[in-house]
Design brief:
It is a single chain. The chain is mainly α. The chain has helices spanning 2-14, 58-66, 88-100, 118-133, 137-153, 155-163, 166-179, 182-196, 204-210, 213-224, 228-241, 246-250, 255-264, 269-283, 289-299, 301-310, 314-327, 331-338, 343-350, 356-371, 379-386, 389-399, 403-417, and strands at residues 20-21, 27-28, 47-49, 55-57, 85-86. The strands form two sheets. The protein has a three-stranded antiparallel beta sheet. The protein has a two-stranded antiparallel sheet with strand order 1-2. The longest helix is centred in the N-terminal third of the chain and has 17 residues, at 137-153. The chain starts with a helix and ends in a 21-residue tail after the last helix. Pfam families: ARM_PUB (PF25598), U-box (PF04564). Residues 30-104 form the U-box domain. Keywords: Transferase, Ubl conjugation pathway. One of its GO terms (biological process) is protein ubiquitination.
Length: 438
Amino acid sequence: MMISSWRRRRAARRAGKEPGRNENGEMELTIPRDFRCPISLDLMKDPVTLSTGITYDRESIEKWIEAGNFTCPLTNQVLRSLEPIPNHMIRKSIQDWCVENRSFGIERIPTPRVPVSSVEVLEILSKIDVACKKEDGEGCRELVVKVKSLAKESERNKRCIVNNGAGSVLSEAFQAFSKASFDVNVAVLEEILSALTIMFPLNGEAKGFLGSVSAMHCLKWFLSSGDLSRRRNAVLVLRELGQEKMDELSEMEGAIEALFKLIKDPICPTATNASLTVIYCMITSTSTNEKLIAKFVNLGIVSLLLETLVDSERGLCEKALGVLDGICNSEEGRQMACNNALSMPVLVKKILRVSNLATELSLSILWKLCKNEKSEDGGFLVEALQVGAFQKLLLLLQLGCVDKTKEKVSELLKLLNLHRNKVECVDPMDFKDLKRSF
């Protein structure tokens, strides 16, 4: 009997399980030490070996290296290479152990995909460069599809591709094919444009290629085309270029209308946010902003922004307010805002309701509109009083705000105070339960 019991225990140890019981008397399973990651102490799902010969789980050791450590955690030896090597032998043993112990509820770990290496990425990017020089559009397109596929496999692959300069190589390829016949190269250009949206943020070199005359005209064409994915990808890339190229974009025929359409007929929140960012950069440019604002106002952007602000999430609300604030720098923009019945109720509502930035932008717009009120009866100021602006501003002073905002609040209160006798203001008790939501 004793020999039989000893044999069972020895067999259990060989299978990697030492029968034991927990506090409730239930059988417990012990993971063999060689199958545990020395960092997380958990069962390894993707064992990899470092140059020091120690095996770790890939996720744990990559976090260690990304944190700026260049030594082996267990031996403290300096790593000769930061590229861990898959340990197929250990992984196969772990999978066999999982199968043998499935009665304990252990699921077999799937065979992990081998992540792309820097050498592989550089080889693909080199082939893309060669294809561009040969003007081989189809060959380049196939390589770009491969880059996209690898990047979408895992976040680790994406980082490796981005860190090896894919953004610059793809941007240079986009510039190169945009110079040639557009009809012939539209397929490869569309594929590159799609891949670029995965490579954000783009570096200065990549922005330089995309900011060339031919590339900008190509981006504008995609922005205006009927295909939804093309328009989305184009506006995302244009947002990456920043304010430096906005003057050039604003001069291109159809660009303003295309951006306006992306807000009026939204494709997705990402595209709408990007469109508002691009428009903001355009109207805050120092050279052509007055003429540009007039074009947007004539398209109906003021009413569109106010309708967007009625019910929008924080990010979209802040961007829409930013654009409206820029529009109100012009007389035409302010007049259009004053004539819109939504302006005052929406702006007052956004104060203290969304975020600090939304509050500051709402106040800035109110300040511009009220300060430029020209009617003798104080029409816009009276309307502000009717929707409770005076009490809201007083509350803002009590809760505290930055000096610049405080100056505008004080000035607004003085302007509103001149007309308080004309309307019955909102009862201050209406705001007694109001608290900052941010």
